Amino acid sequence: MRISVLGDLTLRDDDGRPVNLGERGRPRRQLRALLCVLAVEDRPLPAAALRALLWDDDRDRASLLTNLVAQARRVLPAGRLATETGPGGGRAYRLRRLPGDETDAEEFERAAARADTAREKGLLASAAVHYRTALARWDGIEPGAELRDLPDTPGTRHRRDALLARRAHAAEASVAVRLDLGRHGPGLLDEIEAHLARDPANEDLHRHRLVALYRLGRRADALRAYRRAAAVLAAELDAPPGLALRRVRDRIAADDPGLLRPPPGPPHPPRLLPGREIGYRGVTDYLLGGKDNTARERAFVDRLVAETGTDATALPAENRECVLRMVTAMARRGVRQFLDLGSGLPDPVRPGVHDAARRAAAEPPLVVYVDNDPVVAVTSRAMVAGDGVVFLELDLRDVEAVLDAASRRLDFAEPIGLIVANTLQYVGGLDADLGTGEVVKIMEGYAGALPAGSLLALTHITGEGMDPRLRPVVDSVEPAAPLPQHLRDARQIERLFAGLPLLPPGLADVGAWRPERPPVARSMRILAGLAVK
């Protein structure tokens, strides 16, 4: 059952159909109040305690409560309003929940708590996503209409006040995080204005508005905004602006350039290994049977096979097939949203992530592909975009930009299948650890944004067990390698799962990860794993 209490009370039954609670007029107002109290409290309430939460007077309303309970049972799905034995032996009432039943207030608080945790850890991109998810639960609720069906009694005021204070904190923190990330465009100003319409005396929001205006080159507007803020605070609180707001005004008046810069983040994104003689994209496409490759790339592959007799040419296809099995496994666990980082060209022969998800998911899936290659962007938009499939031309190293764009398409309050297939071997500097620590930080940013129940599918080439004749071709530490890649070992690859536990069979060769046919040992290996949050 879906229960919304943050605005007008609404309920949907187990089949998603709205429960008819009638209009908000007098005849149904008390029924709505009863259901709202039961939903918000989520515990057995003795009749006396329930009456105290519903009515702020000493009148005897026992018969009215009995009548309201009877009305509620007529409109709710069968068995959902339970009568239990209270602590003193009397009757107690409870709105019975099934697994997965949550109010929008609980969803808001859970997402806000995730955001606070991510912010404390310095994972600002993840925090921004979770704050947006949390605040979305208040969308469409006009100022003054919050928790409208919760009665105004001493016993319920603390619930209302706590939720409104939590919302104000989430609004302040959401804006602060985006300013820290350097995202101070006009869209943020619109968001600040909307928050101020609900909370006009919030000094933190006024301060953030001044900073955003100043960073947009609107110094005069920022100083005018300060004067408006001072007038609002005088009218609402009969008090002058606080010290923090005054200091920002003074820095803007002094044209302080330090105010233009967000707090320093990582000095630069981790290195992306370049192809030297030929392109990764073209070689992979040729091995998969495609036509988006050059004569030079085809000749390179053919010469390598002739000189070494390698069977590693089968690995790209085995990797793609393994990813499709992982997508199927995720869909069968109830995941219907997928984010594919470094998606590459659409496979010319095999189905894509969206095809596998459509076959296995109980509902039509949503798929967001991400790649920074312009050719991949043009091809993907022409071949796969549409009907629940979106392509974003972004670099996976820019975690904040990817999460910001993806969170506008996917619901980060519901499980997501994150896919990073044979991509991370191209990311990271040439230190003794092959830049693994840098890449772990990237993956921590993504993992931190995922809600519980999400899964991470990752594949990565390894140097373990590789034919020595192939190393000069692909090893990033070889100065002349035409296709340089970081040949991380299994221990390093497992670190890329950002602490998420692996599901059986753990980290395995792509051909041996829940295979549909007997795996074949190859002269080059790609390892695969599926982890759960």
Which helices and strands appear, and what pairs or packs with what?
Layout: E1 2-4, E2 10-12, H1 26-41, E3 45-46, H2 47-54, H3 62-75, E4 81-85, E5 91-95, H4 104-120, H5 124-136, H6 154-180, H7 186-198, H8 203-215, H9 219-237, H10 243-253, H11 280-287, H12 295-308, H13 315-332, E6 337-341, H14 353-360, E7 366-371, H15 374-383, E8 389-393, H16 399-406, E9 417-421, H17 436-449, E10 455-462, H18 471-474, H19 490-495, E11 508-509, E12 525-532
Parallel strand pairs: 6-7, 6-9, 7-8, 9-10
Antiparallel strand pairs: 1-2, 3-5, 4-5, 10-12, 11-12
Helix pairs in contact: 1-3, 4-5, 4-6, 5-6, 5-16, 5-17, 6-7, 6-8, 7-8, 8-9, 8-10, 9-10, 11-12, 13-14
Q: How does this model look, in words?
A:
With 533 residues, the protein is α/β, with parallel strands linked by helices. It has 19 helices and twelve strands. It has a seven-stranded mixed β-sheet with strand order 8-7-6-9-10-12-11, with helices on both faces. Helix 17 links the parallel strand 9 (417-421) and strand 10 (455-462).
Quick summary:
The chain has 19 helices and 12 strands.
Q: What would the average pLDDT be, to the nearest integer?
A: 90
Label the structural class. alpha/beta
Distance between the termini: 24 Å
- Placed side by side, the strands forming the largest sheet appear as 8-7-6-9-10-12-11
CA radius of gyration is 28 Å
Per DSSP, the total helix count is 19
How would you characterize the largest beta sheet? 7 strands, mixed
Report helical residue fraction.
Answer: 40-55%
Q: Overall 3D geometry? A: globular
* Poorly predicted runs: none
**Strand residues, percent:** 5-15%
User: Would you count the extended β strands for me?
Assistant: 12
